[in-house]
């Protein structure tokens, strides 16, 4: 054989493989989603998300300190709103003493250098489980955007570093940016869920927050999984409206979208490795069908290789632990 080069040379042993490795996971890449509930000193299992928990705020603060000590830099907060506080307009979302606002203050006080990001959407607060105000079975865009902008200001007021609108209403990034500017919150950033697909892989998350849509589905605002070009349109709109970071969601089933977005924008790209994607690996590993750590690392590496600068992941605390051991 007359080969110009033997490609296997670069795979010969672990040292050379490490030297030419193109993608590496860093603890700093991760955003840790946190589910916070009312009450004292409680942790609740989420049956469809084995190993992941909901915490009362006192415990969540301790977890946030643990995450920071593991080298993690950021958390993304979700709260479980009590049923009796839910309505159609998300009034509780604006309560300065609401669970989200108290959580932001408590975590920023305990761990000031942890970047606190907050979910901005109505679904956890909505009697209908939808991301917007409902009228005659429709999810209204413009009235919802007004509430989302107020919600973002309320989170900024409480000390959020980034607000993260996850609702997919049109024009909300621009409205939030304007509202933040007008209220003097010029240092609060926006992580926009720009290309969020109407995915079945959010199922376990909806169990976690009890936020499944009460009627219909979310296809009139979240994107059709069949579409790619539309994702670029959504992302470019959000960048123009002032998004500091854009996000693609889910992640592993949308690696092509992550890459395409990465090639199109000059802002950091995040991807959300969502609950269903987490639970698939958990379940298969529990059955002994996949090697847990290998599956987690390969899936996560794929998300980064596809182009994600940041990864929201339920695996983040475990991965941070493994990286620390290395
Ligand atoms: N806004 C958050 C979701 O819609 C779902 C996330 C997940 O499934 O992990
Ligand atoms: Mg949009």
UniProtKB/TrEMBL annotation:
Molecular function per GO: porphobilinogen synthase activity; zinc ion binding
EC number, UniProt record: 4.2.1.24
Active site, UniProt feature: 196, 249
GO biological process per UniProt: protoporphyrinogen IX biosynthetic process
Family: Belongs to the ALAD family.
Subunit-structure text: Homooctamer.
Protein name, entry field: Delta-aminolevulinic acid dehydratase
Origin species: Schleiferia thermophila
């Amino acid at each position: 054989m007359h080969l110009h080069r033997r490609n296997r040379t670069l795979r010969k042993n672990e040292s050379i493989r490490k030297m030419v490795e193109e993608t590496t996971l860093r603890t700093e890449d991760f955003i840790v989603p946190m589910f916070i509930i009312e009450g004292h000193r409680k942790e609740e299992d989420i049956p469809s998300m084995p190993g992941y928990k909901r915490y009362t705020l006192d415990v969540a603060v301790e977890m946030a300190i643990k995450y920071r000590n593991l080298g993690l830099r950021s958390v993304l907060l979700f709260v479980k709103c009590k049923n009796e506080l839910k309505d159609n307009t998300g009034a509780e979302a604006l309560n300065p003493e609401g669970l989200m606002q108290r959580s932001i203050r408590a975590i920023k006080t305990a761990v000031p250098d942890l970047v606190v990001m907050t979910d901005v959407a109505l679904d956890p607060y909505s009697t209908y489980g939808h991301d917007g105000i409902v009228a005659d079975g429709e999810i209204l865009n413009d009235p919802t955007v007004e509430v989302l902008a107020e919600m973002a200001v309320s989170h900024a007021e409480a000390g959020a570093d980034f607000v993260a609108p996850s609702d997919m209403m049109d024009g909300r990034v621009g409205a939030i940016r304007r509202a933040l500017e007008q209220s003097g919150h010029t240092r609060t950033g926006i992580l926009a869920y720009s290309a969020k697909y109407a995915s079945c892989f959010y199922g376990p998350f909806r169990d976690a927050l009890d936020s499944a849509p009460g009627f219909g589905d979310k296809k009139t605002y979240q994107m059709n999984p069949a579409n790619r070009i539309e994702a670029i349109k959504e992302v470019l709109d959000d960048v123009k409206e002032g998004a500091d970071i854009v996000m693609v969601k889910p992640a592993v089933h949308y690696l092509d979208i992550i890459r395409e977005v990465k090639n199109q924008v000059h802002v950091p790209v995040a991807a959300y490795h969502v609950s269903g994607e987490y639970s698939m690996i958990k379940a298969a590993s529990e059955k002994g069908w996949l090697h847990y750590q290998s599956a987690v690392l390969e899936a996560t590496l794929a998300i980064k290789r596809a182009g994600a600068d940041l990864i929201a992941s339920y695996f983040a605390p475990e991965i941070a632990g493994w990286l620390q051991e290395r």
